């Protein structure tokens, strides 16, 4: 498999999941500053011009939620997703909230141009976004509780996605101090060998 990623972007979750699964994969960094996500070749793979994109033996897969679920199911020995239908649905519920609500709230900080042209509207979104993200994080803080993982005792591919959202929080102006459970989860994730390997590969320092 081949993962197209950008350092520290949401693709970090898929990168961690591949490493946790001990998958055979290579990585292709996409340079956003050079506009590599908008080249015709990349848009052929991912028409939205986003990362992650995963090239598999079956073809190209986009969208983090699908990529994480695929990695988990393609590597059952790694036990990265629950077997019971109910627990699996709980995992999807968390991942869907992370991908379709928290990530989008975050995008209003620096990518307001997707939703408005008026510079005042964009600035207004940037001002409001941290409080919206904090409200999202409060829901996750309560759901996580003592954890240690977002589904309770069992680690799953929902954890790397939660990790990315909390990894972004403080640099985006959302302090984690009011969210001790999330802060502990961030630290717990960074204690994992797979996460350390991926942070090193993406040249990121622990937070
Ligand atoms: N729904 C997609 C969203 C992916 C996404 O928005 N990725 C961002 C990086 S965090 C991106 O590639 N942005 C490129 C751009 O906006 O030009 C997913 O969950 O995989």
TrEMBL record:
Residues 1-79 form the GST N-terminal domain. Pfam families: GST_C_2, GST_N. InterPro entries: Glutathione-S-Trfase_C-like, Glutathione-S-Trfase_C_sf, Glutathione_S-Trfase, Glutathione_S-Trfase_N, Thioredoxin-like_sf. Gene3D superfamilies: 1.20.1050.10, Glutaredoxin. Keywords: Transferase. Transmembrane segments: none annotated. GO terms for molecular function: glutathione transferase activity. Its EC number is 2.5.1.18. It comes from the Bacteria. Residues 84-207 form the GST C-terminal domain. This is Glutathione S-transferase.
């Amino acid at each position: 498999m081949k993962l197209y990623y950008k350092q520290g972007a949401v693709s970090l979750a898929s990168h961690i999941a591949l490493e946790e699964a001990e998958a055979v994969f290579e990585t292709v960094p996409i340079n956003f500053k050079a506009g590599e996500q908008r080249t015709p070749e990349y848009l052929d793979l991912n028409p939205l011009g986003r990362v992650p994109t995963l090239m598999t033996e079956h073809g190209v897969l986009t969208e983090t939620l699908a990529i994480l679920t695929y990695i988990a199911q393609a590597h059952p020995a790694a036990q990265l997703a629950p077997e019971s239908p109910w627990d699996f649905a709980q995992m999807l519920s968390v991942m869907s909230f992370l991908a379709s609500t928290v990530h989008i709230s975050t995008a209003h900080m620096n990518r307001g141009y997707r939703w408005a042209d008026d510079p005042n509207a964009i600035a207004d979104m940037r001002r409001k976004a941290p409080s919206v993200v904090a409200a999202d994080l409060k829901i996750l803080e309560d759901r996580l509780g003592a954890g240690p993982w977002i589904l309770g005792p069992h680690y799953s591919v929902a954890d790397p996605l939660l990790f990315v959202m909390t990894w972004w929080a403080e640099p985006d102006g959302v302090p984690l101090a009011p969210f001790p459970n999330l802060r502990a989860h961030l630290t717990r994730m960074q204690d994992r060998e797979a996460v350390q390997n991926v942070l090193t590969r993406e040249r990121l320092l622990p937070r």
